[in-house]
Structure formats: structure tokens, C-alpha cells
Amino acid sequence: MVEIDDTLVRTLVAAQFPRWAHLPVTAVARQGWDNRTFRLGDELLVRLPSAEGYATGIAKEDRCLPILARHLPLPVPEPVATGAPGAGYPYPWSVRRWLPGDTLAAAAAGDLDRVAVARDLGGLLAALRRVPTEGGPVAGRHSAFRGCHPSVYGDEVEQALDVLGDRVDAVACRAVWARAVTSAWPDAPVWCHGDVSAGNLLVAHGRLAAVIDFGQCGVGDPACDLVPAWTWCVGAERAVFSDAVGLPADAWRRARGWALWKALVTLARGPHEEQARVLGAVLADPVAG
What we know:
With 289 residues, the chain is of the alpha+beta class. Helices cover 39% and strands 15% of the residues.
């Protein structure tokens, strides 16, 4: 597999988009798992899928991001151009508008208005549900089943509990999971982001400023997008987030199941301080369900 570095990016850009060949290329400090990201000058970025399984996200985002951008209250990455395989790199890649701000994961705690961010995020997710779904991809394998019913991962939950044994409260975990799978989204499918993590949210001046990485987006059940209630929010922030989201208790039960699944499967692979904290929060606080 070819190494994804700034040299490769310069080579691809010079060959396919020579008008940008003079722009400096710099890897962003915090890289994601699915894609490698590089700044191209001051106003552009280049995203390259890290493996074949993520390559289909390029065409999907090219199609979906313009739809979402017209309706959301915060910026999303605007597609500028799409590159083809080349220079030994085997996948399509994309050029997007650079969005300023730090990721929520990297932002210093003292620089954030956490309650305002929780409210902003809940409002953003409520707006996402109102975006017209015509042309949106139905949730499925391409979205890692985000937007589908959480029961799709029922086998993984049981396998993780078997591996973890008495390292977790299996009785409490199974109770949360049982409540998560006893309801389903009753309305027409709506947009969901699919990966609302602190690394995919940008903040500026203490407030939410943009949302990025729609590679797992789809149209389906929005419960999967509520997991920041446990992965990021603490204490009273959860109630603020819940109020702004505006979804009923059954959606929160499914959301709790999504957060439980992720924590368990991660912990089953080995110690993970952050997911251990998330699991504790999931078991302690149903938020609204």
C-alpha cells in the first residue's frame, strides 16, 4: 500500500489540478482513522481514504454535502473537486473548502462554553432531521449501519460481554440493551450524520462552528447521533443537549444502546480509559429514556 504523505498529495494535485500545484501541502495535526487530511494552501483541504472500505464515502459526500449545506445552520465541508487514483494511490480522493476552528476533542476546556456547545449541537441535529431526504442514501452497510436499528450489532454486544466477563456489570448492560432494541423509529426516515464524535465537530470562540466527516451519513433512524450525551456531555449538559435535540424517550433508549455497543466492543479489545468512562455514564444515566 502506498504511503499517504505530503509528497503523495503534492504529486496527485500537480498531476490532476495543476492550478493548485503551487500551494503548500501540510498534514493536519490530528488525523482520523478513515481518511488522511492535508491542508492545501489557506482555503482548501485534501482528503484521501485510508483503505478501500472508506473510498465509497468520497462519491457519497460529493453528492450529499451540497444538499446538507443548503439547509444546516452551520458550515459543512464544501466539495471543490474530486481526484482520481494515481501515483500508486488506488482510490478516489477529494478537495474541499477548509473550515476554520479546532476540533472539539482538541479544544482546551477553558476555551469552551460547554453548555452552549451542547445546545448548539442538539439544535444542529434537530436541523439535520428537517433536511429533505430526497436523494439521500438509505442507511446500511455504507453507513456502518448507523441509521439502522441498533439490533444489527446485537451479536457483537453479546460477544463483547462474554469476553469481558466480570470486568463489567453484565446484568446492567443487558438491561440497557434490552430496552434499546424494543422500539423502532416510527416516522419517515431522516438524515443522520452517523459519526457525531468530538473529532468531527469544530469549535471557535467557545461555540460549535462546523461539522465535518459525513462519510457515514445516511437516511434512517437518528438515534445513533445522540451518543454525545454520554461520550462528551457531562452532568447538566445532557439535559440541555436532550432538550435541544427534541426527540422522545424511545429514541434515547436506542441511542443509549448505540453508546453501550461502542463502549463494550472497544473494551473487549483491551483497556480503554475513555470508553470505560463512557460505559459508566451509559449505565448511570439514561438521559431521557
